[in-house]
């Protein structure tokens, strides 16, 4: 009797998880963020300086791409009898690989856009271009600053080995200043839309059990390659975004230090312009007359400014 009591006690103590489940009141629903609302009339912050374009663009969805299993199941007709290769394997393999690669690219891109949507608030805070743009007059037109890259401890040697150059810092303007209606946003760099793949023609679809095996293997390999490509493209876009926002911030620091010039902007104002079919009143044309350049004259530099 004593052994039985000890055994029951050990069983009771070895299952603490069961005790926790017994006390649980069931699964708890997690909060789901609201879907963003789109406004097709909103201006593009980069290329369309429309009056009143003040809303941030949102990540728009495309139709959910097909799954890997759906792509593998595509065929016009299927015969269960076994059959060896009949010369169609290579054509089926190429069509299946391309079909799977496009499907994997679309599916992974859809997942990346969904991830970006969930982290919109964080990305808006981390990649804030509002403090980097420059005003162009007193209107709504802004100047997106140029992108300045920096290299440190550069070394160059000619082919003959007779001349060498050692440089502590090198600045280079890699992207010119532009007029915009709104500050740039990370969505311009990171958000991409990839269409779902078109189903191959009937002649390129599997018909026998052997061809189905060839099709499924090629689709799987293509799908994996498409997913890898989507991730690589996203990482490249993210690298360009980081390079550009750091380059714009570097330009603002160099501008404050007097090591780079300000863009020269020309204004042409007309009280009225046009006539007949179109009349413009109080019209101002804004144009970048001279792009900013790096200033090598140390006399123009401001002492005490920290070099980026």
The residue-averaged pLDDT reads: 81
Class based on secondary structure composition and strand pairing: alpha+beta
Percentage of residues in helical conformation: 25-40%
Q: How many strands, which pairing sense, and closed or not: the largest β-sheet?
A: 3 strands, antiparallel
C-alpha Rg, in Å? 31 Å
Strand order of the largest sheet: 1-2-5
- What distance separates the N and C termini? 81 Å
Count the strands?
7
Q: How much beta, percentage-wise?
A: 15-25%
Protein name: Type IV secretion system protein DotC
Organism: Acetobacter syzygii
Keywords: Signal
Signal peptide: 1-22
State the gist of this model.
The protein is of the alpha+beta class and 308 residues long. 37% of the residues lie in helices and 18% in strands. The chain has a three-stranded antiparallel β-sheet, with no helix packed on it. Strands 3-4 form a two-stranded antiparallel sheet.
